[in-house]
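Much of what follows relies on a compact textual record of a protein's fold. The record below shows the convention in full:
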Amino acid sequence: EDNAWWLYLVLALAPDLAMIGYAAGTRVGALTYNTVHTYALPVALAAAGVLAGAQGLVAVCLIWIAHIGADRALGYGLKYPTDFKDTHLQRV
């Protein structure tokens, strides 16, 4: 498939839209951010995509997984409900 490069960029940044949850407070923000930044959802969806032969879904999930990995490599961990800067890896 020939996809535009901007589509990959948009998909790579899409999980960070979960930060919008912080508009409802730190507890809700941490919950939404952590839900989108754990490996469970993209791995489960990728497995379903493999079983269903849905290559597009698998590709999106791989980009999602790469986003999570890049966040971890940069020191951005899962959030504690105390503050956005409090993560399971370090205080950012």
About this structure: The longest strand covers residues 83-87. The chain has four helices and two strands.
